[in-house]
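call fold(seq) -> tokens
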Amino acid sequence: MAVILGAGVGLGFAWNAWSGRGLTLAGNAFIRPGEILEEIDAREAKRRLDRGAIFFDARPLDFYRMSRIPGAQSLPETGFEAAFARLEPVLKSRFDLVVYCTAMCEASHQVARRLRDKGIHAAILIDGLPAWTDAGYPVREGKEP
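ret:
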């Protein structure tokens, strides 16, 4: 049993080391070495929402409709260009933007990168919607923000 466990751990470390992200034992594996992306916790996200920040949900539309942060707009990683075209005026006119997905989800980081490539800064809510709900903050359901 110990041999199997040791082999599994060894293979996991090897996969991580060769995956292009390096061997990350601390910090966020979704952020590439040398990359600057702003990550915020749920408390800071709530503070920003209360001050008028606009939130963007990077999950697929069906997940957005099930539950989301109040006022959040859908800006899914898949279908990003179409959603960006629809939201571009808002994205380019505001300075306090937050992107989230779910815990252990890279979509928010991918969306933040794509926004950055278009000259738009957005913070990333660490651990996404689960962190938000675990903090006891409200959510909405349905099609409208």
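The helical segments are 2-18, 42-50, 61-66, 80-93, 107-117, 128-134.
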